[in-house]
Write a structure and sequence with these properties.
Blueprint lengths: L2 H9 L10 H8 L38 H14 L4 H11 L9 H7 L22 H19 L21 H14 L3 H14 L1 H8 L3 H15 L16 H14 L8 H4 L4 H15 L8 H16 L11 H10 L9 H14 L17 E2 L7 E2 L2 H8 L6 H14 L16 H11 L4 H11 L3 H10 L10
Antiparallel strand pairs: 1-2
Length: 484
């Protein structure tokens, strides 16, 4: 191992207290050479790192392309994934952005003997370039080194045979710690290289790594914020031309991360709940992207199309209005596709039980969709005895109106009576707690309704936005978010 590399790795041995400043490490990592491989999506840094001045023309740092490279990847990954509080992150920035390095050491002095370019070293588009000579710039190049290692690990014929040997060599921390810190760094420095490495980790490690990302409250916020910044950075005169790292790349990268998270969400948790707190901003931004997509020169970009698909899931899950003045027609089209199918996979008796609880616990409001009275309900349906109305006129209007009550009245009565549901909403007489299987046994024994009738009942009931909104919100599985 070279003296310089040994010095650098030793200086990072304690990731809480790196020995040198940002300049030193950025200069070093600018020499991690990606040019020996082909077929990867992106090089970590531009081909000519801005390191030498005329007075130091003999500065020739060797490219890190041998087995030594794996050691620096491990050190960099450890730096990124080591647990730090927000206060520790801020303190690290203060220390590393101020150079207190020992310049009497010739190696250390050489690592500082170069002039910074005013522009950032990476190839991200305007509005997303990272500040040089800063912790932000260091995090960016560190993230690119780890991302490049993840990409190389995917190749069967790895041109850098020792960098890395396996995908597990690319990530120093466990999945939970790594996800927490990558999201925390992204929240402090919302830059594309960090989002890129998150996409790489999700892609290469799959479900074990993705689940911790789904627990983050910061990741959805920053995905949506970067997506919005991507749209805001598009010039007004943009004609729709594209290039792999053109001005629409931040949008594409956000959709790539969304795709990785969406395709591996487990435990029946809807992707809509990952973005729930960001829903208005997400759908507003996706609508803008969809209109931009109409100008693009490509026939179709499936990564973008999946982003609109996710927008439809969010719209459908949260039972938002089909308002073409607020949402792009493509998003509304996907929403209609998912409107009823979101709930359909539930076991039929479990869904029917959830529906009956919703009806029983529903506020005492008139169930006539066209009722405008604020007085509240004053009578129960004389048939099922579990649906409320203002008066006989409202009951008659609802009988054959929109989402008519007539086809489900007898079924509500049969299911409610079979399982012992109260005939009206009364806090002193709550609906019985039971599993879907227990409810199913009671229905089969006491109602005379077969499984197909229960399925038909479910589909009719979830067609009512009011019922579906409660079902989606109250009975859907979701992850408990960790703010940190």
């Amino acid at each position: 191992m070279s003296t310089l590399l040994a010095q650098a790795i030793l200086s990072l041995e304690n990731p809480y207290n790196p020995k040198y400043c940002c300049n030193y490490y950025i200069c070093l990592l600018s020499h991690v050479d990606p040019c020996y491989h082909t077929g990867l999506w992106e090089d970590p840094v531009q081909a000519d790192p801005p390191y030498a001045t005329n007075s130091y023309s003999n500065l020739n740092l060797e490219r890190l392309v041998s087995s030594e490279s794996r050691a620096i990847v491990t050190a960099v990954s450890k730096f990124l994934t080591t647990t730090r509080s927000r206060e520790e992150m801020a303190g690290l920035a203060l220390r590393m952005e101020k150079c207190d390095c020992d310049r009497t050491d010739p190696l250390v002095d050489q690592m500082h003997a170069w002039q910074w370019k005013t522009n950032a070293y990476n190839r991200d588009p305007p509005g997303f370039t990272c500040r040089t000579n800063s912790l932000e710039g260091l995090l960016a190049i560190m993230a690119e080194v780890v991302y490049n290692a993840l990409q190389l690990s995917e190749l069967e014929d790895n041109p850098l045979r020792h960098w890395p040997q396996s995908v597990r060599d690319c990530l120093a921390g466990d999945f939970e710690t790594s996800a927490t810190m990558l999201c925390r760094w992204l929240d402090a420095y919302p830059i594309l290289p960090l989002l890129r490495v998150i996409a790489g980790v999700c892609s290469r490690y799959g479900e074990p790594a993705i689940t911790p990302f789904l627990l983050s409250a910061h990741l959805p916020k920053n995905i949506v914020a970067i997506l919005r910044r991507g749209m805001d950075s598009i010039p007004n005169d943009f004609e729709g031309e594209i290039s792999p790292f053109g001005i629409v790349y931040p949008i594409t990268l956000c959709f790539i991360v969304m795709r990785e998270l969406n395709t591996r969400i487990v435990d029946g948790v809807s992707t809509a709940y990952f973005y729930r707190e960001q829903c208005p901003l997400l759908l507003e931004t996706l609508t803008r992207v969809a209109y931009l997509n109409e100008k693009m020169t490509w026939m179709m970009d499936f990564t973008w199309e999946l982003g609109f698909d996710i927008g439809g899931v969010v719209h459908a899950k949260l039972v938002l209005p089909y308002d073409a003045t607020l949402y792009h027609p493509t998003i509304l089209q996907y929403s209609k596709k998912y409107r009823l199918t979101i709930l359909a996979p539930l076991p039929p008796y479990q869904l029917a039980y959830n529906i009956m609880r919703t009806i029983t616990e529903y506020p005492a409001d008139c169930m006539n969709l066209k009722c405008t009275s604020a007085a509240g309900a004053s009578m129960m349906c004389s048939g099922c005895k579990r649906v409320a109305y203002c008066d006989a006129q409202c009951q008659l209007a609802a009988w054959n109106g929109q989402n008519p009550h007539k086809p489900v009245c007898k079924q509500i009565r049969a299911l409610g009576d079979a399982a012992g549901f109260p005939i009206y909403a009364n806090p002193k007489s709550p609906p019985p707690d039971m599993t879907g299987d227990e409810f199913g046994r009671l229905v089969q024994a006491n109602s005379g309704m077969g499984i197909q009738q229960v399925r038909a009942f479910n589909m009719k009931m979830i067609d009512d936005d009011r019922i579906r909104r409660v079902l989606n919100d109250k009975y859907s599985a979701r992850y408990e978010r960790l703010l940190e």
